[in-house]
Amino acid sequence: MRRIRKIGVVLYLISAVVVVGLFAGSQFGPHTDRFDALLAVPWVHVLAFACVCVMLIQMAVLLIAAIADKPEPEFLRLAGDVQIEVALPALVSISRTAAECDDVLIEEVGAHVRGRDRSEVHIEIEAIALVDGDLAALGQDMQGRVQRACEQMLGVPGVSVRVRFLPSKTVTVTREVC
């Protein structure tokens, strides 16, 4: 999808440059007669029409995307009940507290509401392991603690947790230039 988006943006920019260049050249500047002669050529008409169509399509896509864009919800609804909502910062705080231990440094905790009725939450934890050991077991232990703490606080299931370990060692390379 990113590749298609990049191609669309490049086509849009090229079309915009062609349309603006033809318009500005035919209306302003010392070479308006040359641009008028260029615009009399049939293939330039086709090129200008195609570029205008590309710009209109891109503007329509952006307008539809702006209208259809929904902000990410900041509240979790317990068991889909509209009356009971829990704020995401509260879940992040509980997750950070539950994930902390002596062997791990918590870098970042994020939470995203999921589900059609906003009754599920996905928590992502980025951590740095301070020990050389089994990271899979350490991650599963953290995942279980966070999931139990959130479900205990909420009183209903619907929490998924993902733990990702960041590199714990950095290498600095110095080179001397003569």
Task: Describe the overall structure.
It contains 5 helices and 5 strands; from the N terminus they run αααββαββαβ. It has 178 residues and is of the alpha+beta class. The strands form 2 sheets. It has a 3-stranded mixed β-sheet with strand order 3-4-5, covered by helices on one side. It has a two-stranded antiparallel ribbon with strand order 1-2. α1 packs across α2. The two termini are 47 Å apart.
Strand arrangement within the widest β-sheet reads 3-4-5
CATH architecture term of the largest domain:
2-Layer Sandwich
Whole-angstrom Rg: 28 Å
Q: Level of helix content? A: 40-55%
Total domains, how many? 2
Tell me, rounded to a whole number, the average pLDDT. Answer: 86
- CATH class (first level) name of the largest domain: Alpha Beta
The count of β-strands is 5
Largest sheet: 3 strands, mixed
Order of helices and strands: HHHEEHEEHE
Strand proportion: 15-25%
Give the structure's gist in a few sentences.
The chain has 178 residues and is of the alpha+beta class. Helices cover 52% and strands 20% of the residues.
